[in-house]
Design a protein that fits this description.
The complex is a heterodimer of chains A (about 650) and B (about 180). Chain A has about 650 residues and is of the alpha/beta class. Chain A contains 25 helices and 17 strands. Chain B is built from 4 helices and 7 strands. The chains are: A alpha/beta (about 650), B alpha/beta (about 180).
Chain lengths: ~650, ~180
């Protein structure tokens, strides 16, 4: 039978493929492909040799066809333009891609018999023997499965749920690992800590319900601000929350940033409430301490804000912290400061970020958004683009404020007693001298807000002591009152705003009573010692401090009397200071004595504040120091000085 | 329906070298663990990664991890939840409803999709929970929503995934050593 070579169509080529594919599939007992993609790349080959014509009898045996790799005689390759099919992508989940090529056969001269099908029934000049080059794709080994069912539910409540119960016989995969390992694993797999239960077990009966709620929020929200009123135990809540997270293995490295004066407070609280944590202070981080590196215990580092501004802070504190606590978080309300930028870098990969502040944060939107961009950056607050109400709505789940009177009903009473005094002769002389000097200056130079502020501060100092005097009516009253308090076997805390006109001049008089002193010149160790001694030593009966060093962050509950020797512009500063005494842990009624000097700037400031309705706790506590200053306008201050002049002239 | 079981399936994927660890946790309505299963790491060869291309992850998550894990469970869950939509392809090979759960910032699904529903978290109404079903299994949404809403009163429905991930990370070295010992 005469045969001649011919061309095959694309459709026929597909039919040719059916056969080779059928060889590939059955051996693997896989599902048939759903879709086949073919990429056909026709290439031209030079005619080398006209193939010999074969008869039906000369066809290859069936076995040869089924094992095409054996039929690789080059003489059987077509000399005609060949089609190379590659790659063939089969959408089978377990058989991926098959690369092979098919040499075009020589086709029967009878066009109607061309390409009869893949069974190659003798119509070809020679049998179609596609050369299959199959690249075996490695199959995936099915993974082993391990696991375990839980131990049976505990029968009693007094044992830990994980450790008790009867274990079931091991089933598939259960014997692969020791039971103790699975037991540990169940602790990870158990639901998040039910804080109430954990706290009850670990710190029985010492925490108020609102504190347990605070601990719960800190743990669950992960990024949260506790803005509870002063004296409600924010530090304790934080320490307990830290302790629980350490116990759960979620925190290993914690960074606590706080004001310098609160370093010792954090040390003491951590020692008391979080004994499982090793404590390092800010002096140690700079030295790459080898002993610390080898100690694998969970660790808390206590660093003051002032250190964040140093160059090495970023270098040494830039490590993966599991928890960052920002005490007095309003310290970072200005995003332009170095400490803000350092904190931004330090906290970028930190999961738990907590802010603490007794000073409310709801005053200026920019400050609030700046703080939250560190505490919870995912909120993406932008003060300039958002309505204040929307910002407050957004932060509400991540901020809590409770007031002491609402949550601690058993806190003893606090009474306030004003003591009015007069300037002595020397003070009055100095007072008038300052006013006279200002009057002269104001005629020659332009009076500014700052200038007036300085004059008023000078006048306030004179209300304490005359320049060259070591005594004053205030001092006399203070000594009388202190004697009386100590006679009742009680302790007293004395606050003043000035060092030279305050602590320095009071110290020699108060030392005989047993004095603990704290001012800006004291080292961290001295500050810690002062607090410790006052709290524990019965012979140490007076705590004398400047408001800006001892007025926040401390616990001075050993005393139940507070004396404000003088006054700042913002009464909230004094209130916060007296809350060092009037706080959780205070068992006795607290008396606060305020010294005021009649017919002086102190009285006038008080009148202005009263007139403006700023002496109410609820109003003033919403204001920051900066905002408070804004409330006293230049005209207020001028009127204040004018009244001073008129009084001076009349006298 | 007071007593039900939810299964939370997730995978920890390591990048270099690529490894897939699968884990499934069955919990009761108060989110206490009932059963946990995990797989030894599936480590695709470079040639497998090249040839499977983008389908690799979906194939491993569904055929090699989720379906075997669900079949290995002794406590049959009423619903299997995942975080990764790539798991949804396993629904065909499972007899248990399968949904993908995620947290949504809006009250409605991103697209008008019959395969998704959004509802508020009972514990925190300002937070929204989104459920997605596999293609062709819209009916899973109805039954699944009831279970997830009930469960969400005790526990945020995304929280158990974190537990599984932590467990897988804790088990990682043991699973790897196990695989190395058996030569797989």
């Amino acid at each position: 039978m005469g045969r001649r070579p011919g061309r095959i169509s694309f459709l026929n080529a597909l039919m040719y493929l059916a056969r080779p594919l059928s060889w590939l599939w059955p051996s693997r007992s896989l599902r048939a492909p759903e879709i086949i993609w073919l990429k056909i790349c026709p290439t031209k080959q030079r005619h080398k040799e006209r193939p010999a014509i074969r008869t039906d009898q000369q066809r290859q045996s069936k076995s040869e066809i089924e094992h095409p790799e054996t039929a690789s005689d080059p003489s059987l390759l077509t000399p005609f333009p060949a089609l190379f099919f590659h790659p063939l992508i089969v959408s089978s989940p377990q058989f991926l891609r098959v690369r092979f090529k098919i040499g075009l056969p020589t086709i029967s001269a009878n066009p109607s018999l061309t390409l009869p099908g893949p069974d190659l029934q003798g119509y070809f000049a020679r049998p179609l023997t596609p050369e299959l080059i199959a690249v075996p794709i490695p199959e995936f080994d099915p993974p082993e499965i391990f696991g375990r069912r839980r131990f049976s539910r505990p029968a009693t409540e007094d044992k830990p749920p994980i450790a008790q119960g009867v274990s079931r016989p091991a089933s598939r995969g259960e014997s692969d690992m020791p039971a103790s390992f699975w037991q540990l694993l169940w602790e990870i797999l158990s639901p998040p800590p039910r804080v109430e239960e954990l706290v009850e077990a670990k710190f029985p009966g010492k925490l108020y319900p609102f504190q347990i709620d605070g601990i719960k929020r800190l743990i669950e929200k992960e990024q949260f601000i506790l803005a509870d009123e002063m004296g409600t135990g924010k530090t304790v809540q934080t320490c307990v929350a830290l302790s629980l997270l350490v116990r759960l293995g979620r925190v290993r490295q914690a960074l606590i940033v706080c004001p310098k004066s609160a370093l010792s407070v954090w040390h003491n609280h951590l020692r008391q409430w979080t004994p499982e944590v090793a404590i390092n202070d800010h002096l140690q981080y700079a030295f790459g301490n080898r002993a610390i590196a080898q100690d694998t215990r969970p660790r808390a580092w206590i660093v003051p804000y002032s250190r964040l501004s140093t160059i090495d802070a970023a270098l040494h504190l830039n490590r993966p912290w599991d928890l960052v606590v920002l005490d007095e978080v309003h310290e970072i309300r200005n995003p332009l400061t170095k400490k803000y930028k350092t904190l931004q870098m330090i906290t970028r990969a930190t999961r738990y970020r907590w802010g603490l502040s007794g000073t409310p944060l709801q005053n200026r939107l920019e400050e609030l958004t700046a703080i939250f961009s560190i505490i919870r950056p995912s909120l993406q607050l932008r003060a300039e683009n958002m309505q204040p109400t929307r910002v407050r709505e957004a932060i509400r789940p991540y901020l809590r404020r409770v007031c002491r009177k609402d949550v601690i009903p058993d806190l003893p009473t606090k009474t306030r007693q004003e003591i009015w005094l007069e300037l002595d002769e020397k003070q009055r002389h100095d007072y008038q001298a300052i006013l006279g000097r200002f009057q002269t200056d104001s005629k020659s130079t332009r009076v500014t807000f700052t200038h007036i502020w300085q004059v008023l501060t000078e006048l306030k100092k004179i209300c304490n002591f005359a320049h060259d005097s070591r005594t004053s009516p205030k001092l006399e009253k203070l000594l009388e009152l202190t004697q009386e308090i100590i006679g009742q076997n009680q302790k007293v805390v004395v606050f003043t705003h000035f060092r030279e006109f305050g602590t320095d001049r009071l110290e020699p008089y108060l030392r005989p009573f047993g004095l603990a002193l704290m001012h800006g010149g004291c080292t961290d160790v001295q500050r810690a010692e002062a607090v410790e001694r006052f709290q524990t030593d019965p012979q140490c009966r007076v705590f004398l401090a400047t408001v800006h060093t001892g007025g926040f962050g401390l616990t001075l509950t050993a005393a139940n009397n507070v004396i404000h020797f003088d006054h700042w512009w913002n009464p909230a500063v004094a209130w916060q200071a007296e809350d060092r005494v009037y706080r959780i842990g205070q068992k006795r009624p607290v008396t606060v004595y305020e010294f005021w000097v009649r017919n002086t700037v102190e009285e006038r400031i008080r009148q202005i504040l009263e007139h403006k309705g700023l002496l109410h706790h609820e109003v003033i506590e919403r204001l920051s120091e900066k905002d408070f200053r804004k409330l006293l306008t230049l005209s207020d201050l001028m009127s204040l000085l004018q009244s001073e002049f008129s009084l001076t002239l009349s006298s | 329906m007071d007593e039900f079981r939810l299964a939370f399936a997730t995978a920890v994927i390591e990048a270099n070298p690529v490894k897939f660890f699968g884990g499934i946790l069955v919990v009761d309505p108060s989110s206490d663990p009932l059963e946990f299963r995990c797989t030894s790491p599936v480590q695709p060869l470079p040639i497998q990664q090249i040839l499977w291309g983008q389908r690799l992850k979906r194939y491993i998550l569904t055929e090699l991890l989720l379906i075997p894990l669900v079949n290995a469970l002794e406590s049959r869950p009423d619903l299997v939840l995942t975080q990764d939509p790539d798991f949804l392809g396993a629904r065909e090979g499972m007899s248990v409803p399968l949904l993908c759960v995620s947290e949504s910032s809006v009250e409605t699904p991103a697209h008008d999709d019959e395969h998704a529903i959004v509802f508020s978290d009972p514990l925190n109404p300002s937070r929204w929970i989104c459920l997605n079903s596999a293609n062709g299994y819209v009916e899973d949404l109805d039954s699944g929503r009831r279970l997830v809403e009930t469960f969400a009163r005790a526990c945020f429905p995304l929280e158990p995934f974190r537990r599984v991930e932590e467990a897988l990370k804790a088990l990682k070295s043991k699973l790897e050593s196990r695989t190395a010992a058996t030569g797989k």
